[in-house]
């Protein structure tokens, strides 16, 4: 294999990789209800951030420790808008 052929092959593979193509956003933003792990318990980071946002919004009912990842993400998004952090 020549250097030119190898370079062309590498460029082809790189352009096929959405992680290396900054124009491809198809896998970056997904609706939380479409997440394959959305029904798992929220992460520690989500819980911490949600609690902080709920305190800032003075909405003690916004934090629920039993939320799943998708629900927590949606609530975080709503609280970010409400608190002007969006």
UniProtKB/TrEMBL annotation:
<dbReference type="Pfam" id="PF11272">
    <property type="entry name" value="DUF3072"/>
</dbReference>
<dbReference type="InterPro" id="IPR021425">
    <property type="entry name" value="DUF3072"/>
</dbReference>
<feature type="region of interest" description="Disordered">
    <location>
        <begin position="1"/>
        <end position="44"/>
    </location>
</feature>
<protein>
    <recommendedName>
        <fullName>DUF3072 domain-containing protein</fullName>
    </recommendedName>
</protein>
<feature type="compositionally biased region" description="Basic and acidic residues">
    <location>
        <begin position="1"/>
        <end position="34"/>
    </location>
</feature>
